[in-house]
Amino acid sequence: MSKKAIVVGGGYFGCSIAYYLAKNKIKTILVEQNEVGSGSSGGNFGCVQVQDSEPGLSLELTLEGYQRVQQLEKEFNLDLEYREMGSLLIAENEKDMSFLIEQAKIKQSWGLKIDLLDRNELKRVEPNLSTDSIRGASYCKQGHLNGFKLMNAFIGQGKRYGLEVWERTKVKKVIAAGNTCKGVELASGEKLYGDYVILATGAWTKELCKSLGLNVPIEYVKAEAFVTEQIQPFLINYFSLASFFTEAHGQDETTTSFCCVQTKSGNLLLGETSKPGLVSTEESGTRNSREHCLGIYQEVRKFFPSLLNLNILRSWTTYSPYTVSHIPVFGEVEVQNLILAAGFKSAVVLTPIVGEIVTDIVRGERLKYDLSQFTQQSRLA
Amino acid sequence: MLVMNSKEYICRCEEVTKEEVLQAIREGKQTLKSIKRATRAGMGACQGRTCSKLITTLLLREGVPEEEALELDKARFPLVPIPVSSLEIGGEGDV
Amino acid sequence: MCRIINHPIVEREERKNVTIYVDGKKLEAKEGEMIAAALLANNIHTFRYTKKQREPRGIFCGIGQCNDCVMIVDGVPNTRTCVTPVRDGMVITTQKGLGKIGDHNAL
Ligand SMILES: Cc1cc2nc3c(=O)[nH]c(=O)nc-3n(C[C@H](O)[C@H](O)[C@H](O)COP(=O)(O)OP(=O)(O)OC[C@H]3O[C@@H](n4cnc5c(N)ncnc54)[C@H](O)[C@@H]3O)c2cc1C
Ligand code: FES
């Protein structure tokens, strides 16, 4: 009899995990409280990020994932709007620059090709950038795709292998007997049982694990974003600030951090992450704040003043999961038959490899990677 | 000269045809939001002002339950296009 | 030139002529009227070409809703001509696909 798996959460990871499981003949149900892509994955920028990855296993998986993402259009025979672009991490001061230099050195030793750029070189790779306030940058190749198309592809292809997708279905709690996970209880009261439960619930993971007595160190920041009208290619690279890593994801720092990218359709996506701790998942918590409007305006004025007349069409907010240690919560934890897959620093790039690894776990295969460093941080209280 | 085109556009901004919208509905998309995400209809310059009613009609015609077919995509700031420069709104609170 | 000279309800008011430049051609318009009206009066019906299929588009809703009538106006792409009044000396260009930031500087 084939094994049965329940995947909770229809973000990038839930979708990819469900796809790879179904493809490998595991009877899989994906349960999503709203619609697929209603979490952070529906509000992000679609970058196949490489250089942000933490040195070590995260980076190793990222490099593997990067190879695989590039093959997905062929595998699915679908247009995911995939293309290659550069990624710029910008330092505005000495502290951030030394961080970039140090990171580049370490990541180069892992085989990643990262270049450090001074202002003149920066002007060459990103001609419309106003470099006055910039100290330097690190540059690395990455990809970009349409995240909605990616999730739709995983789901659509998964369904061909028998994947069931239950949208508008909320998981109330994880059912465990002793230290073994048995299934999930839905908000409706209905119970679903399976051989494995996989929580790919992003920012919600910590809460969902509480009733199991499992302490999961996933925090989240609120992020706000705008999409502009479409214009001819203006921004060549994905643009983000090193302060995102030196400050915004610190434990209780209060810095915001700006990023932007232009999509294949010509829209510019402008975003800013907020302070941790200021979040609420209430309806009111989904509104954009004046503070971020001003923040994004100021960043655009500083870095891309010629965009100030460009029209904004829509805004949104989202909760982006992260861990203070910068490494994900991924793998089997102290509760048997429960797999956690959340808190990844970069998401899109890891989707295929995370899906494959979860499938290997469920099938009882020997793992190619030792995930213990990713799971150790989640302990039973 | 009048150019006749056999394609029927539902979303004029993103040039999404009726056929593409119907395809998305057949693939299980039952709300304006999910059709938007699958086809880009409603993502363009007018943000669905023109196409959303047409898509709702198609959803109902294809037998999608009213609860989903009539679900509006959330209206969000800024409601009408505004230049980036007009984000210079200080103060506290939400927009 | 095609304009309504006698309207059964709306009274005709005298308006000053202004000059606009459309794709390099010098044309006459009435002060205060919308660009789209001036173009129609000058027998111009194609305002832009779509980005995917490169099909011609002109006025559709006429009330600023649909964005079908957009052109590059004084260097600003995606300008809705049905709700943007003409200005003496205005430079208007047919938008082919996506507009470009900074076209203004090039003019
Ligand atoms: C502005 C911004 C830009 C970003 N840009 C990028 C980028 O370019 N590239 C990149 O790789 N990453 C990017 N990220 C990060 C990325 O968005 C997240 O890391 C990623 O989306 C996380 O995916 P996920 O599947 O873990 O979580 P989510 O997408 O949040 O998915 C979790 C899902 O679980 C569901 N869920 C939760 N609880 C329950 C429950 N009890 N029952 C049922 N369902 C439940 C939620 O509804 C949700 O859909 C960006 C983030 C932000 C905020
Ligand atoms: S014709 Fe619709 S916006 Fe001008």
Please give a quick description of this structure.
The complex is a heterotrimer of chains A (381), B (95) and C (107). With 381 residues, chain A is of the alpha+beta class. Chain A contains eleven helices and 20 strands.
What attributes does this structure have?
heterotrimer, A: 381 residues, alpha+beta, 2 domains, 11 helices, C: 107 residues, Ubiquitin-like (UB roll), five-stranded mixed β-sheet, three-stranded mixed β-sheet, binds flavin-adenine dinucleotide
Write up what this structure looks like.
Chain A is α+β, with helices and mostly antiparallel strands. Chain A folds into 2 domains: 4-68 and 147-216 and 326-380, 3-Layer(bba) Sandwich (FAD/NAD(P)-binding domain); 85-142 and 219-322, D-Amino Acid Oxidase, Chain A, domain 2 (2-Layer Sandwich). Chain A is 29% helix and 30% strand. Chain A contains 11 helices and 20 strands. Chain A has helices at 12-23, 57-69, 72-76, 94-109, 119-125, 147-160, 205-210, 243-248, 290-303, 351-363, 372-375, and strands at residues 4-8, 27-31, 47-48, 83-91, 114-117, 136-144, 164-166, 171-177, 180-186, 191-193, 196-199, 214-215, 219-230, 238-241, 257-262, 267-276, 311-322, 329-332, 338-342, 379-380. In chain A, strands 3, 4, 5, 6, 13, 14, 15, 16 and 17 form a 9-stranded mixed sheet that branches. A 6-stranded mixed sheet of chain A has the order 7-2-1-11-19-18. In chain A, a hairpin with a 4-residue loop joins strand 9 and strand 10 (191-193). The radius of gyration of chain A is 20 Å and the shape is globular. The two termini of chain A are 35 Å apart. The model of chain A has no long low-confidence stretch (mean pLDDT 93). Chain B is mainly α. Chain B has a domain at 9-73: Orthogonal Bundle (Arc Repressor Mutant, subunit A), CATH 1.10.10. In chain B, 34% of the residues lie in helices and 7% in strands. Chain B contains 4 helices and 3 strands. Chain B has helices at residues 18-26, 32-39, 51-61, 66-69, and strands at 9-11, 16-17, 82-83. A two-stranded antiparallel ribbon of chain B has the order 1-2. In chain B, strand 1 and strand 2 (16-17) form a beta hairpin. Chain B is flat, with a radius of gyration of 16 Å. Chain C has a single domain (17-96), classed as Roll (Ubiquitin-like (UB roll)). Chain C is built from 2 helices and 8 strands. In chain C, strands 2-1-7-5-6 form a 5-stranded mixed sheet, with helices on one face. Chain C has a 3-stranded mixed sheet with strand order 4-3-8, with no helix packed on it. The longest helix of chain C is centred in the middle third of the chain and has 7 residues, at 35-41. The A-C interface holds A 128, 229-232, 234, 266, 306-307, 309-311 and C 51, 76-78, 97-102. Strand 17 (311-322) of chain A pairs antiparallel with strand 3 of chain B, so a sheet runs across the interface. Bound molecules: flavin-adenine dinucleotide (FAD) and FE2/S2 (inorganic) cluster. Flavin-adenine dinucleotide binds at residues 8-14, 31-34, 38-41, 43-47, 49, 170-171, 200-204, 208, 223, 225, 271, 318, 320-321, 342, 344, 346-349 of chain A.
